[in-house]
Amino acid sequence: MLIVHHTPSPNCQALFEAVVSGATAPEIEGVRVVRRAALAATASDVLEADAYLLGTPANLGYISGALKHFFDQIYYPCLDATRGRPFGAYVHGGSDVTGALRALDSITTGLGWRRAAEPVTVTGEPDRAGIEACWELGATLAAGLME
């Protein structure tokens, strides 16, 4: 499973850490979890993964520029080979994440990826419920890959 994230703030870092903790929980066996910053992730990373977990802040009503750059780099090289693969996402925003969710839906639909879990959205400082939802997101995606 590939976790591609843009984590520019302590709030995003808390959500990222919760996702990783869920994906690597002791009860998850036989799943390799690879973490890549959005600006470092490559088409090879995407092609080698069986599922994707995407994390982004909502910036000016959209996904982060770093995550958009990731998609721009991998779109055509991965378009046919990754069709149907599962993904999940978490988005952090100061107040509204609607535009970022719309962008993620549009891009992942174009790639033909299959939503394996509802996106987790957190606004403001992450509370316990947001952290737990991110943990569950990571665990759910990883558990779906267990043999």
From TrEMBL:
The lineage of its organism: Bacteria, Bacillati, Actinomycetota, Actinomycetes, Kitasatosporales. InterPro entries: Flavoprotein-like_sf, FMN_Rdtase-like_dom. It comes from Streptomyces echinoruber. Residues 37-106 form the NADPH-dependent FMN reductase-like domain. It holds the Pfam family FMN_red. GO terms for molecular function: oxidoreductase activity. It comes from the Bacteria. This is Flavodoxin.
